[in-house]
Design brief:
This protein is 74% helix and 0% strand. The longest helix has 30 residues.
Length: 143
């Protein structure tokens, strides 16, 4: 059961990463197509790993043992902070310019469409994260 569950989660992560990489409008400078797909695969696998780890830890709490959805919601909320830190560290190490448009006061420097695009990107990331967490949770509930 565990081996097939891990294979299913890996397949879902691979599919989500391929869809994200295929829908990205611009590649970072100097990146090949394979490195873009690899970046998204690593990013989605980090999220899935953190969610599953926190889900397993929270599931061992005696009062929440039989309630799957509260455990899943709690795991998604608790894993958000480490996920944000790990992705920010990954982006900084790789030199991605995601934070270049912000000044010290955290206000955008140019009020152009880039601000709107970043806002839409963050909303899309939130919905993708929610989708991954729900998909992983639904697989554990159904099987």
């Amino acid at each position: 059961m565990l081996r097939s569950y891990i294979a299913q989660v890996t397949f879902l992560c691979l599919t989500a990463a391929l869809l994200l990489a295929a829908s990205q409008a611009m590649r970072p400078e100097g990146w090949t197509l394979a490195s873009l797909y690899g970046y998204w695969l690593i990013r989605v696998l980090i999220e899935a790993t953190l969610f599953i780890a926190f889900f397993e830890v929270i599931d061992r709490v005696p009062g929440l043992k039989s309630r799957v959805w509260p455990v899943a919601v709690t795991a998604a909320v608790v894993s958000l902070f480490p996920f944000a830190l790990s992705i920010t560290a990954l982006d900084l190490i790789l030199g991605l310019p995601e934070l270049d448009g912000l000044t010290a006061s955290a206000l955008p420097t140019a009020p152009s469409t880039a601000t709107t695009a970043n806002g839409i990107s963050h909303i899309g990331s939130f919905f993708l994260r929610s989708f991954i967490c729900l998909t992983i949770t639904s697989r554990s509930v159904c099987c």
